[in-house]
Amino acid sequence: MEKIYCEGCGAEIQTEDKTKSGFVPQSALSNEHIICQRCFRLKHYNEVQEVEYTDDDYLRMIHQVSDTNSLVVKIVDIFDFNGSFISGLQRLTGKNPVILVGNKVDLLPKSTNHNKLIHWMKKTASDFGLTVQDVFLVSAAKGQGFEQMEAEIEARRNGKDVYVVGCTNVGKSTFINQLINRSSGVKDAITTSYFPGTTLGFIQIPLDEKSYMYDTPGVVNRTQLVHYVTDKDLKLITPKKEIKPKVYQLQDKQTLFLGGFARFDFEKGVKQSFVCYVSNLLMIHRTKLDQADTFYEKHVGDLLQPPSPETMEMLPPLVKQTMKIPYDKTDIVIPGLGWITVPEGGVTVSIHVPKGVHISLRSALI
């Protein structure tokens, strides 16, 4: 019997075991378009069923790309570059050239310096051991930035297949749906969801008579904040509209809480205005540093929200990291949340983030 694959997630269709990926009732095999029960429930009820794949299974699938002669398009989330960057990607994809695409550019403030962001992305990728041919900033949801990127992909692939890779929740399926919609007018051809790991196998999309684009499974990176929050909280910390900068003038020994997910302590330095670039729905509170511990214990999940009680059960404890900011106009990037701009250097600050989430510094984008 010829193998059939789910049009939603790419898993091989089977009718034997409801608990395994690709299951459909026998009666569904006669349908013109076949999607597995998992994708059906995801599409119609936004309900995600667990599958038997492990994190390593996803990495092994991506490693198959190294045996091909193709072009790799790597998608990252601009607001979670480090968390959405696949470690060891050069090893997983072999000698194939890589184009790096930063998604969700429409959510950045209009004053963002795009050239500076592109330069930073290329340098950071290099620091992670990945050489990229080019960097593009796009909005998969709105189709922004696609024309130039599509032309570059077509030129660089030179008739070869294209593999689209990315961590979970970076908008990879939305990105491919946008490409398909622009070329064929078919909307939402691939299952999309807020939830990580919804694409289970390689989904094959024809580019021409001889070559294909492949949507690959979302790689799970456990340093991503997304893996420790409920879908409700994820919608609150993930921007949906252009971010409005929030300015707070702080003296030393004052603290800012970004909901209950992160804490910024101004330990030492001259009075200045710090600018927060986070989701417009994320609540920010200011308090005195010597009261911050008590304030957090009393108000997390209440005044400091999100997180919800359900997320608090999963969220690792906040871990403190103290650093001296040597340069003027420095961004402190908190993966999964956004960033705080420090206007003047020579200050000492402490950042508290969930254990396993890695903050980084860069020259201010704005």
Describe this protein's structure:
By secondary structure, the chain is of the alpha+beta class. It folds into 3 domains: 1-52, no CATH class; 55-221, Rossmann fold; 237-363, no CATH class. 23% of the residues lie in helices and 25% in strands. It has helices spanning 37-45, 55-63, 89-93, 114-127, 146-157, 172-184, 231-237, 292-299, 309-314, and strands spanning 70-77, 98-103, 134-137, 161-166, 203-206, 212-215, 246-250, 254-258, 262-268, 272-278, 284-288, 318-325, 330-334, 338-342, 347-354, 360-363. The chain has a 6-stranded mixed sheet, with helices on both faces. The protein has a 5-stranded antiparallel sheet with strand order 7-10-14-13-16, with no helix packed on it. β8 (254-258) and β9 (262-268) form a beta hairpin. Mean pLDDT is 86; it is low at 185-200.
The whole-number mean of residue pLDDT values reads 86
The fourth-level CATH homologous superfamily of the largest domain is: P-loop containing nucleotide triphosphate hydrolases
- What's the β-strand tally? 16
Category by helix and strand content: alpha+beta
Please give the alpha-carbon distance between the first and last residues: 58 Å
Give helix and strand order, one letter per element, not per position.
HHEHEHEHEHEEHEEEEEHHEEEEE
What characterizes the major β-sheet? Answer: 6 strands, mixed
CATH top-level class of the largest domain = Alpha Beta
